[in-house]
Structure formats: structure tokens, C-alpha cells
Amino acid sequence: MANLELWETLKESITAYTGLSPSTFFTVLGIAVAFYYLVSGLFAAPTPPPRQRSYEAEMEPLAPPVQLGEVTEEELKVYDGSDSKKPLLMAIKGQIYDVTQSRVYYGPGGPYALFAGKDASRALAKMSFEEKDLTGDIAGLGPFEIDALQDWEYKFMTKYTKVGTIKKTIPVEDAPLAGDTSEAANNDAAKTVEGESSKSAAVESVQQPKEVTVDGDVKE
């Protein structure tokens, strides 16, 4: 009973002080509250997102580059990124660089993974991904391709550490074995012996003493 009397009193007060019916008053009040929360939500400071660990932080720290010195192209192939415990290497113009820090590009699954473990000078100059161009042979490249290769080389020199060079193998012509004489050599030797024999015969003929007979004839 008391609650009902309180409600009737409240309705009379609302009508007396606002000039609105109780239903209209509570409708306006609800709209005002909703508008307040809408405006406060627009201008409130955004809640900072939860801190996430960066990709670099999750990666293990890179080991310092190890100097290889001079290696063959076959030996360079083992540094193509297939073994995560070994550095990731590639070469330009015979100079080997450690590109481990860019494993996302040159490592397995990367866009340039094809170049790892190789001297990819020709492929980089031509921006080719063909197997035949994965070589350090840059013969026959055009001026624009040479310029592109120089740009790549400058980038590698300034960004990565040089750790070695590729050993160039120079083919050696077969030399004649000791005791092996060719037909030409035999012919030269025969001519030399023949010439020496002729000379000896001539000298002997000149030095041979001559006998003089009683008749005055000269006898050999």
C-alpha cells in the first residue's frame, strides 16, 4: 500500500515539475541515457590491445657469421637452408655472403630460396628463376643486366657479411708422360742420329791416311 502511494506521489511530482506525463518522462529519460553512453563511447580512449611478442623476439638470436674462406661450388650447396643449424649462404660474382638474417626470403619456402647455396649471379642479373641461369657465369649479359647485377652486389655488400669466395677450377691440359715418345719425336731423333752419322763419316773420310805407291799414284 505504501509503495502504491509512493508511486502516485512520484507521478504527480513528475507532472508538476516537468509538465510531462510519467510515460513520456521515462521515455525521454531512457533516450537521454542511451545517447550519453553512445557519445561517451565515441570519445573514450581506446583500450590498448594485449601486447604480443614480435616475430623477431620469438626467433633464436643469430650466431655470428663464420668465415669459410675458399670453397667449391659443391661445398657451397650444403648451406642452402635445408639444415637449420648451418648458416644460409649464397654468392654473387664468386663472393659468398651470409644471408641467414633474411631466411624468410632466401630460406626454404621463401621467394628467393632457389638462389641459396649457389652463385646466382646470372639469375639475379636476368631476374630469372630458370635452372640454367643458376650459375656464376655472366658471359654475354647485356648492359642493363650488368647494371642490375651491380645493384644486387652493392645491396649484398652493404647488408650482409662476406664469409668467403668460390674456388675456381682451372682445367689443366694433359702433359706427355715420362718415357712416352710420339711419332714426331721418334722421327726427330732418327734425323738427329742420321745427321750425326753422316758428319762422323765425313770426318773419318777426311782424316783417313793416304798411301803413295812407287808409281806415284795415290792409294786410299
From TrEMBL:
Ranges of residues in domain Cytochrome b5 heme-binding: 71-167
Query: Principal localization?
Result: membrane
Gene Ontology MF terms: steroid binding
* GO cellular component assignments: endoplasmic reticulum; plasma membrane
The organism's place on the tree of life at top rank: Eukaryota
Residues crossing the lipid bilayer are: 25-45
**Which subcellular locations apply to this protein?**
Cell membrane
- State the signal peptide span: none
Query: Matching InterPro entries, A to Z?
Result: Cyt_B5-like_heme/steroid-bd (IPR001199), Cyt_B5-like_heme/steroid_sf (IPR036400), MAPR/NEUFC/NENF-like (IPR050577)
Region of interest (Disordered), ranges: 175-220
UniProt keywords (A-Z) are:
Cell membrane, Lipid-binding, Membrane, Steroid-binding, Transmembrane, Transmembrane helix
Gene3D superfamilies in the cross-refs: Cytochrome b5-like heme/steroid binding domain
Similarity comment: family membership: Belongs to the cytochrome b5 family. MAPR subfamily.
Protein name per UniProt: Cytochrome b5 heme-binding domain-containing protein
